[in-house]
Each structure stands twice: as structure tokens, then as C-alpha cells.
């Protein structure tokens, strides 16, 4: 996909002038350690150059492209990507140098893994262990306490304890969702011929939140229903596998509160003057989108295009005119067969 994002004029090394180059994103291929990989690269294009080659990269773009290629290799080889390493470090509130010290590595090792170098399997395995098990990181922290100092040691011990509590709560939320969706495990009209997929649900929420400004819970839930319904109508399968009920404000997925509390979904509570609370969904990590295929993104894009500027009340009123709402009773599961009768024109 080509991008034309607005940017400041800059010196162009091809034509020697100050102007606004065109920024292009595209698929590229390379070989790393005898493994062929494809990745997304970004280049600048000079529209004024008479040279045969009118593309160029800045130093920062070159580094970015190299990192994208190396991350593609890591994904092929089932290694943590640079952003996943950064995420696990930030989860514990560690700097790059601190994480290296805690694990007994060279001080710049983590910095290199997050910017250019590819970790070996042994280091990758250790990073995965501490990502998933805070107690293991706690053990390393105790072992290398002197490398951090008394005050910082205490701060990190507290943060690890906090992460352990958060992970325990997250596990309970996941169990609640799994329990709620157990009766709908088999593909059916209730779930859009798709068993519930937590990763695709999270990805869909983050995708919508990243493309719709001020996305609150009511509007989000309706947009998810429409996206799942469009995907089912056009391809025979919903995106998320969520099961929706007829509720006063329109379609709501089963266990919607627990769904919004899942890891990877950012929700901010906003107290209103009348004492009520609104829930603002913030954009999450773009990497979660990668699990969505092009047809699923197309359904989400179509929903965004139609409802991006609708208020919550507008989209609720639109939902209330759907056959899916008019022909079902309060609390009833909404069959995805109604997707063939969407009010979409």
C-alpha cells in the first residue's frame, strides 16, 4: 500500500532540492541466515529526479527497514521480535541496561536486540520465561541485586509483585470469558460460524480504536457487530466469534465487560458531571492487527467508513432499524443469519 502522509519538506539527495518526498510502503523480500523472508519496507520517492532510480532512504529509514526484515526472520524462526522484547521489558518497568544486568548479560545486549541484533535461542528462551513468569524474573533480580542498588531493587520488587497480581486477575478474566463462551464453542449461527477467538477480538478492538477518534464502549460494540456481520455475509465466517444479544442499546456481545478487560485492550473510565461513567477505548499495539486477514480488515474498514462520524446515539438508532433487532426479543441471541438483511445502503 502506498502512503502519502503529510510531512515537512526536506533535502532530497537525488535532485538536490528542498521538497516533500513521497513516502511509499511496500512488500519486500530478502534472505537472512539462509532463510527467505518478506517484510514491509518504506522508501522515499523523488518526483523531480531525472535519475533512473528515483527512490532513496534516510539513515533512520534504512535502520527501520533492516529491523523489519530481522523481525520477519524472528517470526519465521519463532523468536521474540524487537517490539515484543521491548514490551516485556516495559511491563516490568526496566530500562534496557537494567534488564541486561538482571539477567547477567552485557550491558548493551538488550539494546542491540531491540534495535538490530537477532538473539540466539538460549537468550530467547530466557526472555520468554521471564515474560510469562514474574517469579523467574524475581529470582534473577535477587541474584543480581548488587548491580542495581538498594533503592532500585526495592522498586523493581514492588513492580514484579504488581505484575503478578495483574496476571492473576487477567487469568480470572480469561477464565470468565471462556466459561461464558463454552456453550457456543461449536461453529453455529450464534457465533457466525466461528469459535470465539480472543486474539482476533482484541485485534478488532484495537483496529477500530486506532481508526476512530473518541471510540466509546456503546459505539464500539455496535461496530463490532456490524464488522462480524459483514464478514459473515460476504465470506460465511464472522471475525471474532463473539455471540451477540438483543439489548436495549442494540447488540452486545456475551460477557462484554469481561471482554473489554482482556489483556491488550486499553479502556479509560471518564466520570461525567451527572455521575455516570463513560468508557473510552484507546488504540492498542498495531502488531495485534497482523492476525487479521485482508477480508477481515476490509469488513472493519467498511464499518469505519460508514460509522466513523456517527455519535453513539446515531449508531444505536441505526441498529434499532435492523431486522436483527426488530425480529428478536430482549436478551435473545441474535442469529448471524440476519447478516443477509443488513440495513447497509
Automatic annotation (TrEMBL):
InterPro entries: Cro/C1-type_HTH (IPR001387), Lambda_DNA-bd_dom_sf (IPR010982), MqsA (IPR022452), SocA_Panacea (IPR025272). Residues 85-115 form the HTH cro/C1-type domain. It holds the Pfam family HTH_3. This is DUF4065 domain-containing protein. It comes from Gordonibacter faecis.
Amino acid at each position: 500500500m502506498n502512503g502519502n502522509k503529510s510531512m515537512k519538506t526536506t533535502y532530497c539527495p537525488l535532485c538536490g532540492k528542498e521538497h516533500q518526498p513521497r513516502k511509499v510502503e511496500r512488500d519486500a523480500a530478502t534472505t537472512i541466515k539462509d532463510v527467505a523472508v518478506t517484510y514491509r519496507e518504506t522508501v522515499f520517492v523523488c518526483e523531480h529526479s531525472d535519475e533512473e532510480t528515483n527512490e532513496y532512504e534516510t539513515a533512520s529509514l534504512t535502520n527501520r527497514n533492516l529491523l523489519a526484515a530481522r523481525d520477519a526472520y524472528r517470526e519465521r524462526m519463532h523468536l521474540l521480535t524487537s517490539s515484543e522484547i521491548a514490551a516485556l521489558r516495559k511491563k516490568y518497568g526496566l530500562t534496557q541496561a537494567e534488564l541486561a544486568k538482571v539477567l547477567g548479560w552485557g550491558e548493551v545486549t538488550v539494546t542491540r536486540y531491540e534495535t538490530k541484533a537477532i538473539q540466539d535461542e538460549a537468550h530467547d528462551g530466557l526472555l520468554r520465561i521471564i515474560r510469562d513468569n514474574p517469579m523467574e524474573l524475581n529470582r534473577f533480580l535477587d541474584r543480581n541485586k548488587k548491580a542495581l542498588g538498594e533503592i532500585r531493587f526495592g522498586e523493581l520488587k514492588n513492580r514484579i509483585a504488581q505484575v503478578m497480581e495483574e496476571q492473576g486477575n487477567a487469568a480470572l478474566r480469561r477464565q470468565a470469558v471462556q466459561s461464558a463462551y463454552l456453550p457456543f464453542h461449536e461453529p453455529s449461527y450464534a457465533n457466525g460460524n466461528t469459535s470465539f477467538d480472543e486474539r482476533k477480538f482484541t485485534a478488532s478492538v484495537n483496529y477500530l480504536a486506532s481508526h476512530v477518534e473518541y471510540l466509546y464502549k456503546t459505539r464500539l460494540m455496535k461496530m463490532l457487530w456490524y464488522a462480524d456481520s459483514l464478514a459473515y455475509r460476504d465470506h460465511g465466517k464472522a471475525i471474532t466469534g463473539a455471540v451477540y444479544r438483543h439489548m436495549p442499546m442494540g447488540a452486545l456481545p456475551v460477557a462484554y465487560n469481561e471482554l473489554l478487560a482482556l489483556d491488550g485492550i486499553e479502556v479509560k473510565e471518564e466520570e461525567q458531571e451527572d455521575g455516570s461513567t463513560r468508557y473510552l477505548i484507546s488504540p492498542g499495539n498495531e502488531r495485534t492487527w497482523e492476525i487479521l486477514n485482508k477480508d477481515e480488515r476490509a469488513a472493519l474498514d467498511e464499518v469505519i467508513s460508514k460509522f466513523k462520524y456517527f455519535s453513539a446515539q446515531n449508531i444505536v438508532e441505526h441498529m434499532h432499524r435492523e431486522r436483527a433487532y426488530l425480529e428478536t426479543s430482549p436478551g435473545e441471541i441474535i442469529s448471524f443469519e440476519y447478516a443477509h438483511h443488513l440495513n447497509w445502503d
